[in-house]
């Protein structure tokens, strides 16, 4: 059964089948509702149901607070129409940024640092991400977080992990060269340093380190001396990158400390901490901290459960989930 969807305040209308979520139905009609993962993990497609019947599919806990649900808010990439609908939803501009690859270097065996120079300023906040068009593939975009604060330089820096069979990451690892062009959409995401003086607890897994590094550097740049502790998880020792950089920060900024952890019990060379979240749980009282989490959706969900059981308020937990593109 097909229904008519009307978006406010733009007044844009399109048809959606009851088996299509609102974001994909809009896309099929060349309407770009703001979204990130398209799989219920990031919260960037939040909208409000103004009228009509719908069914909300499952999404990551904490994306909608109980007060937001009560106010009719919904996760549109998991919302299915059951009647004609009027929705408040952000339609993003078709603005794109042409960029040139100016640096490609290995950070770890399966992680590349990508540096892009945009043709015009790219105004973003530390913690945000960019959607990149996969070169040579029509309508395929992937999301990557900027790894440095905006004031650092006129280049955008990303940490990108290779995924077996990955459309974008394989292109980047095996074909891309300096001088190649990459198109970016506008910066997105609400994952950002909060304006308060609470100590920071940062938890990063894998390339989840990228936006966390941007946020930590931003806090350091502001000259604040609140304590920052980073727990940084990898599967094996060889998967870590930037350990020297973190060591250097710890030497330079007395208030910054970090704990690297690995999860592979067979990596017997490793003398440090093991298992990311149990290490977090065993190493402090986090109720008074502002918490920043970044990594895969499984780690994020488990971390949220852990933090809630340690009485960290909802409002102090901020996360960016590196979910596969839905
Ligand atoms: C907001 C956001 C920010 C992100 N930032 C970064 C970043 O800074 N660095 C980074 O390396 N990645 C980041 N990601 C993940 C990234 O967008 C892509 O999902 C990832 O690089 C895979 O793209 P691909 O085209 O190489 O693989 P695809 O062709 O999309 O997928 C190949 C295979 O890998 C699986 N897969 C895809 N993504 C993942 C994943 N994240 N975890 C596990 N399996 C997966 C797919 O299901 C598929 O089977 C971010 C994701 C989001 C939503
Ligand atoms: S785009 Fe809907 S939750 Fe990420």
Automatic annotation (TrEMBL):
Ranges of residues in domain FAD-binding FR-type: 94-194
Highest taxon of source: Bacteria
GO MF terms held by the record: iron-sulfur cluster binding; oxidoreductase activity
Cofactor dependence: [2Fe-2S] cluster
Record domain 2Fe-2S ferredoxin-type: where: 3-95
InterPro entries for the chain: 2Fe-2S_ferredoxin-like_sf, 2Fe-2S_ferredoxin-type, Beta-grasp_dom_sf, Cbr1-like_FAD-bd_dom, FAD-bd_FR_type, Flavoprot_Pyr_Nucl_cyt_Rdtase, FNR_nucleotide-bd, MRET
Database matches in Pfam families: FAD_binding_6, Fer2, NAD_binding_1
CDD domains associated with the record: fer2, O2ase_reductase_like
This protein's name: (Fe-S)-binding protein
Species this chain originates from: Acidithiobacillus thiooxidans ATCC 19377
